[in-house]
Design goal:
Blueprint (H helix, E strand, L loop, with lengths): L10 H29 L12 E4 L2 E3 L7 E2 L1 E5 L2 E6 L1 H4 L8 E4 L4 E4 L1 E6 L4 H7 L1 E2 L6 H14 L6 E6 L16 H5 L7 E5 L4 E4 L1 H7 L11 E5 L5 E7 L6 H4 L6 H17 L2 E9 L1 H12 L6 E7 L6 H15 L4 E9 L33 H13 L3 E6 L2 H18 L7 E4 L5 H10 L2 E4 L10 H8 L1 H5 L4 H7 L3 E3 L11 H10 L22 H7 L2 H6 L17 E4 L16 E6 L2 E5 L2
Parallel strand pairs: 1-6, 2-7, 8-15, 9-10, 10-11, 15-16, 16-17, 17-18, 18-19, 19-20, 20-21
Antiparallel strand pairs: 1-4, 2-3, 4-5, 7-22, 11-12, 12-14, 13-14, 22-23, 23-24
Helix pairs in contact: 3-8, 10-11, 11-12, 12-13
Length: 600
């Protein structure tokens, strides 16, 4: 008799059923644990009720400890709950606005880490808009039409012409001619920016008023396109455009016009799901106007601002400009902590700086690498001075030579001032060598990339002509950079990128192909080995931009205590065909807990 069993007749049953009982218990425990993990609610921030609840959705939080959820509760401008449909019920009162998402996707609001508002809206409202004009003949007609409709203007300005229209039979590209504008407008100056913003096309009157002639030398980093006899052709690039400053001043955009254009831009950006930006067109004048809009309650996005400083600027004055504006204007909706410098120009303008020389198509000789905008010692001094006062640098560098010089400047600043959490940024990075990718990662230098350019777009053929097919295909190595540990914060560089919908950028970053339905089935792929995943691209437009802007504590992900900035999409882009991402509709854009855009 087994003394451990008080009921000897049950021993057989125990032997038979105990393993089954243990298995059932284990399975039950696993189910409980799984349910607990799925429905576990984070510690609530407030016992108060919600002003807005979203439920029955696919919520992607961009948080490591809670990747997905079904519902979100918002009280005024803060998230107070992220979790299950069941858990959100206790936050609902009679006064709560409740939206049944019916499976739609919720993401942190898209953020654009490099853009130039009001962008094309200034042109659309007050200038010649060539953005959607396709031929040289149409450019000239648009200029003539504008003059006819505005007979009393003192100057005609505009934007949008494309360098690609002027490639010569031998592969060179000097751009359009002044005489073509002269034929329709010769009595007042005409100054037209290219779509990339790095070249201007002018008529003879503008050149004469600026005193630009055969004898005029271009400033360092600038270029004056010339005819065979040395006379100016009518196109100025990079720093040479500064020669037109006094003439350009004849076009005086009023404060009210700026506000009108900015609000048009903001409405459009909100419709794209954008809830925050880094404004690269910051200035003391614009900051005052944006501050006015904030006081009037008209800002519906968070705006970080960068001030641009050109060669010749006194470093102490640059520091003072940023710090004074930061003290005067910083708020929840306006931030000032960034200075922008140009290390080089653009490939199509033959002004980007590369480690290897341009091809002969550049027409600049066989050993031409591009001309840096700054003298090295001046550039390094400016970077070190700004870094010393904790101003974040945002450096334009297209060519791998400019990227290399920028990293050198950051290293010198670290040695002079010590290491800190500076989050200095290099933007564009069309080309970069592998060693510099490693350096970027080690120094935590952020890459502000424009995924909209990652395929064979309108600039690809120009790039191929200027630096060769192999180097053009190897541009924008996002996969290498991400895997090496570089933080990629995506952006548009609008208006050089006129179609700046983040959903387009996400699709291109994944497919490395055109996002447009009429082109998706064609081979416009630029090196798909460098593609990122949808989740990575989504992170690059949300969490990573918030980090770039030092706002990861309150923006960039959906978490209790953070600002209620989010976007609702009609398609779960994480689990869909990447080719459908660009056609996805924005259903709601929410900023500070308020619906600022509702799709139709």
């Amino acid at each position: 008799m087994n003394s451990r069993l008080p009921f000897p007749n049950l021993s057989f049953l125990v032997v038979i059923f105990l393993p089954v009982l243990l298995l059932l218990t284990a399975c039950t425990q696993q189910t409980i644990e799984k349910d607990t993990e799925v429905s576990k609610e984070p510690t609530q921030k407030s016992e108060g009720k919600a002003t807005l609840v979203l439920k029955n959705g696919s919520v992607y939080t961009m948080e490591e400890d809670q990747h997905t959820a079904e519902a979100i509760a918002i009280n005024d401008d803060q998230i107070i709950f992220v979790g299950s449909n069941t858990g959100v019920e206790k936050y609902i009162s009679d006064d709560t606005q409740v939206i049944d998402l019916k499976g739609k996707m919720v993401s942190p609001g898209f953020m654009d880490g490099h853009t130039h508002p009001p962008g094309q809206w200034t042109t659309k409202l007050f200038q010649v808009d060539l953005t959607n004009v396709k031929s040289h003949e149409e450019y000239i007609q648009a200029i003539a039409d504008f003059r006819k409709d505005h007979p009393d203007v003192k100057i005609i300005t505009g934007r949008g012409w494309k360098n690609g229209s002027y490639e010569q039979a031998d592969g060179t590209n000097p751009g359009p001619k002044k005489e073509d504008i002269d034929a329709v407008v010769s009595d007042i100056p005409v100054i037209l920016n290219s779509i990339d913003g790095h070249s201007v096309w002018v008529n003879s009157k503008a050149l004469a008023m600026a005193g630009i002639s055969k004898e005029t030398k271009a400033p360092k980093g600038g270029m004056i396109e010339r005819n065979p006899d040395g006379s100016p052709r009518g196109v100025l690039r990079e720093g040479a455009t500064d020669l037109l400053t006094d003439v350009q001043a004849l076009f005086d955009l009023t404060g009210e016009q700026y506000k009108k254009a900015f609000l048009k831009y903001q409405d459009e950006a909100n419709s794209f799901g954008i809830t925050g930006i880094l404004n690269m067109s910051g200035s003391t004048e614009n900051m005052s106007l944006l501050h006015d809009l904030e006081k009037e309650g008209k800002l519906t996005m968070r705006i970080a601002n960068a001030f641009k400083f050109d060669p010749g600027t006194n470093p102490d004055e640059a520091v003072k400009t940023v710090l004074d504006s930061r003290e005067k204007y910083s708020s929840d909706y306006l931030q000032i902590n960034t200075a922008k410098l140009f290390a080089d120009g653009v490939t199509e303008g033959k002004t980007a700086v590369f480690l290897e020389p341009y091809t002969e198509n550049a027409g600049m000789g066989e050993h031409y690498h591009g001309d840096a905008n700054w003298k090295v010692e001046d550039f390094n001094k400016m970077v070190t001075s700004l870094d010393k006062d904790s101003v974040q640098l945002h450096i334009h560098a297209i060519g791998d030579g400019a990227v290399h010089a920028s990293l050198n400047a950051f290293e010198k600043a670290r040695k002079a001032n010590g290491e800190r959490d500076s989050r200095h940024t290099i933007t564009h990075i069309s080309a970069i060598n592998d060693n510099d990718i490693t350096r970027m990662a080690k120094m935590n230098v952020i890459a502000s990339l424009q995924p909209f350019w990652f395929y064979k777009d309108q600039y690809y053929e120009l790039e191929k002509a200027m630096i060769g097919e192999g180097r053009a295909l190897d541009m924008y190595p996002a996969r290498k950079m991400w895997d090496e540990g570089v933080t990629i914060a995506s952006s548009s560089d609008y208006p050089p990128t006129p179609d700046y919908r983040p959903l387009n950028g996400i699709e291109i970053g994944v497919t490395r192909n055109s996002p447009y339905p009429d082109e998706q089935e064609t081979n416009m792929i630029r090196n798909d080995a460098y593609a990122l995943t949808v989740k990575e691209m989504l992170q690059s437009f949300t969490k990573n931009v918030a980090y770039q802007l030092f706002r990861e504590d309150d923006l960039g992900s959906l978490k209790v205590g953070k600002k209620a900035d989010m976007v609702v999409l009609d398609l779960d882009i994480i689990n869909s065909d990447p080719k459908d991402i660009s056609e996805t509709k924005v259903v709601y854009t929410i900023v500070g807990g308020k619906i600022v855009y509702e799709g139709k």
